[in-house]
Amino acid sequence: GAMDMLRAYTDMVKANYKNSDKYFHARGNYDAARRGPGGAWAAEVISNLRESWQSDVSGRGDEDTEEDQEANRWGRSGGNPNRYRPKGLPSKY
C-alpha cells in the first residue's frame, strides 16, 4: 500500500498538471486499498500524516485539506479515481 501511495505522488510530481491533486489522492488510496486491509490502513495513515503536515506547513487551509481527505476516502472506499480526473490529463496517468 505504501508503494501505491508513493507511485501516485511520484506520478503527480511528474505530471505537474493543473488541478490533478485530488485525482492522485484518490488514485493512490484506491490502488493501496485494493491490496486489502493492510493497504487500506497504510493509505489512511499516510494520507492523515500528509494532510496534517500540509495543513500545518503549506498554509493552504482547512478547506483544501478536507477536499484532499474526501478524495482519499473516496479512493479507499473503492470509488473510481476518475471522478477527480482533470480534463486533458495524459492517459498514462
Automatic annotation (TrEMBL):
Signal peptide: none annotated. Keywords: Acute phase, HDL. One of its GO terms (cellular component) is high-density lipoprotein particle. The keyword Zinc does not apply. The keyword Cytoplasm does not apply. Residues 53-93 are annotated as: Disordered. PROSITE patterns: SAA (PS00992). GO terms for biological process: acute-phase response. PANTHER family: SERUM AMYLOID A, SERUM AMYLOID A PROTEIN. Belongs to the SAA family. Major acute phase reactant. Apolipoprotein of the HDL complex. This is Serum amyloid A protein.
